[in-house]
What does this fold into?
Amino acid sequence: MFNKKKLVILALILITTSCGSLSDVGKIMRNEKITTTDEFLVKKKEPLTLPPDFAEIPEPGSLEKKKNDEIEKKKIEKVFKIEKKKKDKSNSGKIEE
It folds into this structure.
């Protein structure tokens, strides 16, 4: 029924029509990769690591104690900053006089 010439022509037609353009045919024949933007690519995640204080077990009420200590430190720093500002102003006043 089909002779070899018709079969070859039919195969070439199928190959060329399955590609979008002739440049795609050349890329496929040369086995080149076609770069496309794939919106479904999944970014690989880094391996999991343990936090540095993982072995430490917090004691009950330690968080509240930590917060209270930080508040006290801020109050102390605030007092010292006020005293430093007073000293700086008094020194500048002496220089001006």
